[in-house]
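Review form for a predicted model. The reviewer records the input and the model, then writes brief findings.
Reviewer: anonymous (R2)
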Amino acid sequence: MLLPVTEADGFVLDIRYATPDNLTGAPIYTRPVALLLPEARDCLFAARDQAARLGLRIKIFDAFRPMEAQWALWHAVTDKRFVADPRAGGVHPRGAAVDLTLLDAATGATLPMGTGFDAVQAESAHGHPGVPVDDQRNRALLLGLMTAAGFDHYKLEWWHYQLPEARRFPPLNASAVRDGPM
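Model under review:
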């Protein structure tokens, strides 16, 4: 069962695939909803609490992604290193992954990370030498918060975090999830 993550929980939601502001240029979801497995949700809440102690907030771009949306992204992206093959299920369709960034809690300003969310380019990778030092520090801060909370990361995308062994959960279609993002 997937559980919602909401702004009432202390997060900022910017569910990009419910808007045209994403790498496909068109909305993929009809509703801006963030859903996660209970285990992933608990880890995210732990990261939220630690971020708050540092004067930061978490902005969520994506969480559960139904298989239908995974296929839409697969067809939209040329560099397949940046989107999981839907035939293998991916981790977003399992409710075990979240895409996010950090905000300054006092100002609401997004911390610079060197590239935008879903930037399909080499500079999106953790530790890429072409990213400014301050942006690298922000990425390292996000990485530390998320790994301390129990998540694993994908080295090519600074914004992507998932449960370790996320593939132990089954991938889901939109029809399997009531109140899902489709």
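Findings: The longest helix spans residues 38-53.
Further findings: The two ends are 16 Å apart (CA to CA).
Recommendation: see findings above.
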